[in-house]
Specification:
Layout lengths: L1 H32 L2 H10 L3 E7 L4 H12 L13 E6 L10 H10 L21 H7 L3 E9 L3 H7 L8 H12 L3 E5 L1 H4 E2 L9 E2 H7 L3 E3 L2 H9 L5 E4 L20 H12 L6 E7 L1 H7 L3 H23 L2 H6 E5 L9 E4 L11 E3 L10 E6 L9 E3 L2 H11 L4
Helix pairs in contact: 3-13, 4-6, 10-11, 11-13, 12-13
The structure holds zinc ion.
């Protein structure tokens, strides 16, 4: 009995040894044969990209209106509607149930509530987190900001600067170029990058010249942007209007301004070359302005242009299974603007037909906004969350490549 027991234990130990040691012996042999290269390859496959897309001020009714106008009442969904996970987020700021774009963007970019007007910066001196763009940069990733407002406007600003007030657009331009070193910046705002009159923070200067000194290609037209991309530039400053860019519904044929999908495509062409991946923020800035204006033609034009930019991104992602697996794509408005609603007519509409619509205000509203997402960690966003939760999901997507 005692002997049997001993044999039993011996057999068990032998089995354990076989299970535990045989694979590790193999691993040990492989280690000598295929050292760095295979590990390196393994790491590279884990490199994550984050593409964060913001249709500023877009409520769910805006989506319905744009879809009906483009595809008819029972028509196909818009591109961003096809993303895997759908959830929604609370939008309130640290000091109001009605957020502005500065506080709403700061909640995403830096992971906590801020007061309206603050750009990832606490006026009371409280410390703040680095932005998700700065964290991506620290990981060696390329970073980019694309918008149809001035590129120094509140939503892009929260990712690339820390400033007491959104009005400090010269200071935001200075920080982009001198401090943060955002690799790709495409949008409006020539006057913010080359100013003689100090802004609210007391900043003015020629940051275009400084950017050029630092190795940026500086362009002012779509043709200039395209040739910079073709020439293989890795740092691009594209400023296409003195202030915000021309709205879709007012664009003239022959204009030299690129459209949002074209800027998005240029940014991807540059940033996909970074071996450590990238963080890209794309904003359809003027859905918000259209709603402030209570202008349906303006609103639908901006929503559909934003959706075309999403199509550019989805086509890029779907071009390879690896990109699809490793790219976190989030589409989320920062808040709703105008209290927009569709009120009629009382019949079905075909594509291109106009609808009766109205707004309850000319300002932002306090409702939650929809989050569409796909890619690493995005399942956490397929539910009811706070806008500050998006920071954690993005940080985790970046950190995962180390585990
Ligand atoms: Zn906004």
């Amino acid at each position: 009995m005692k002997l049997n027991k001993l044999i039993g234990i011996g057999t068990l130990l032998a089995l354990l040894a076989a299970v535990l040691f045989v694979p590790s012996i193999n691993a040990g042999m492989n280690k000598n044969e295929l050292p760095e290269s295979e590990n390196h390859e393994g790491n590279r496959q884990e490199i994550k990209n984050i593409i964060f897309m913001v249709p500023d001020g877009m409520g769910l009714a805006d989506v319905t209106a744009a879809r009906i106008y483009k595809n008819g009442t029972g028509g196909a969904p818009l591109n961003f509607e096809t993303l895997e996970n759908i959830g929604y987020q609370r939008t309130y700021s640290a000091n109001s149930i009605i957020t502005d774009s500065a506080a709403a963007g700061s909640a995403w970019a830096c992971g906590e509530k801020f007061n309206n007007g603050e750009i990832c910066y606490h006026l009371d001196g409280k410390p703040y987190n680095p932005s998700i763009l700065e964290l991506a940069k620290a990981e060696g990733k390329a970073t980019g900001l694309v918008a149809t407002s001035t590129i120094t406007h509140a939503t892009p600003a929260v990712f690339g600067s820390h400033v007491k007030s959104r009005s400090c657009e010269n200071e935001i331009a200075r920080q982009y170029v001198e401090v943060t070193g955002v690799d790709v910046m495409l949008g409006g705002g020539i006057e913010k990058f080359n100013s003689t009159k100090p802004d609210k923070c007391g900043t003015s200067g020629d940051f275009v010249a400084e950017a050029a000194q630092k190795g940026y290609s500086v362009v002012y037209t779509k043709a200039g942007m395209d040739s910079a991309v073709a020439d293989g530039t890795v740092k691009l400053l594209g400023l296409f209007n003195n202030s915000g860019m021309t709205p879709e519904y007012l664009r003239m044929t022959g204009t030299k301004e690129p459209r949002l999908p074209e800027m998005t495509s240029a940014a991807l062409d540059i940033m996909e070359k970074d071996r450590y991946g990238f963080f890209l923020m794309v904003e359809g800035s003027q859905v918000d302005w259209a709603n402030h204006d209570n202008n349906l033609k303006y609103q639908i034009g901006e929503t559909l242009a934003f959706d075309e930019a999403v199509k550019v991104v989805l086509d890029w992602i779907n071009a390879s299974p690896e990109r699809k697996e490793h790219t976190l794509l989030i589409v989320v408005p920062d808040h709703e603007t105008g209290g927009f609603a569709i009120n009629g007519p009382d019949r079905l509409l075909k594509a291109g037909e106009s609808m009766d619509a109205g707004w309850t205000s000319k300002e932002h509203t306090g409702e939650d906004t929809v989050i569409w997402s796909q890619g690493p960690g995005s399942r956490a966003l397929g539910r009811s969350v706070d806008n500050t939760d998006l920071y954690g999901v993005m940080v985790k997507a970046i950190e995962q490549q180390h585990t």
